[in-house]
Write a structure and sequence with these properties.
The structure holds two protein chains of two kinds. Chain A is mainly beta. Helix content of chain A is 0%, strand content 55%. By secondary structure, chain B is an all-beta fold. In chain B, a hairpin with a 7-residue loop joins strand 9 and strand 10. The chains are: A mainly beta, B mainly beta.
Chain lengths: 110, 112
């Protein structure tokens, strides 16, 4: 069964305290691993797509990496505005629909 | 450019009532999706469409029906609402590369 699992469920950081979010997947024939950000009361917003092990992508304080079984979202020197729920997703085997993890809710305090 | 627009934004139903949620996209996308999001459950796929006139079941399709009569619109119907269908519903669309999805702002539905 295709599955995407995220950990931790919640993460509280102080401003400037770097950390990583984990996403493990059991999708056969990975066709893309996606990271989205979701703010309260809003729809998810696209951040990154990773296609192959070893690939990395960066955007401001965020860097996403991919291995054969996991993806990590590294947050360097976070700011309060980085507080949000971060969702990981992968395509199903047919490549027609995204399967989402339950998300990691990040809170950054100043 | 509105992107993905969902209507209504909020709705309260009584058990057994019916309603239709409308999703409209102005990006000429082939793929459209309906997800529901519940606390602790994440986003779960209800139904999706890979093109005008086509629909397919997702992970949690029971109690819902969909139609894609026009490429830009994807309708989600509840024929007889149940309290278990209380949730936030999100519509999303993507192009043929499906490299990323664009989401609407959601519909908060409460079934009493």
């Amino acid at each position: 069964e295709d599955q995407v699992t995220q950990s931790p469920e919640a993460l509280r950081l102080q401003e400037g305290e770097s950390s990583s979010l984990n996403c493990s997947y059991t999708v056969s024939g990975l066709r893309g691993l996606f990271w989205y950000r979701q703010d309260p009361g809003k729809g998810p917003e696209f951040l990154f797509t990773l296609y192959s092990a070893g690939e990395e992508k960066e955007k401001e304080r965020l860097k996403a990496t991919l291995t054969k079984k996991e993806s990590f979202l590294h947050i360097t020197a976070p700011k309060p505005e980085d507080s949000a729920t971060y969702l990981c997703a992968a395509y199903n085997q047919a490549g027609t629909a995204l399967i989402f993890g339950k998300g990691t809710t990040l809170s950054v305090s100043s | 450019n509105a992107g993905v627009t969902q209507t209504p934004k909020f709705r309260v139903l009584k058990t057994g009532q019916s309603m239709t949620l409308l999703c409209a996209q102005d990006m000429n996308h082939e793929y459209m999706y309906w997800y529901r999001q519940d606390p602790g459950m994440g986003l779960r796929l209800i139904h999706y469409s890979v093109g005008e006139g086509t629909t397919a079941k997702g992970e949690v399709p029971d109690g819902y029906n969909v139609s894609r009569l026009k490429k830009q619109n994807f309708l989600l119907g509840l024929e007889s609402a149940a309290p278990s269908q209380t949730s936030v519903y999100f519509c999303a669309s993507g192009d043929l590369t499906n490299e990323k999805l664009f989401f609407g702002s959601g519909t908060q539905l409460s079934v009493l």
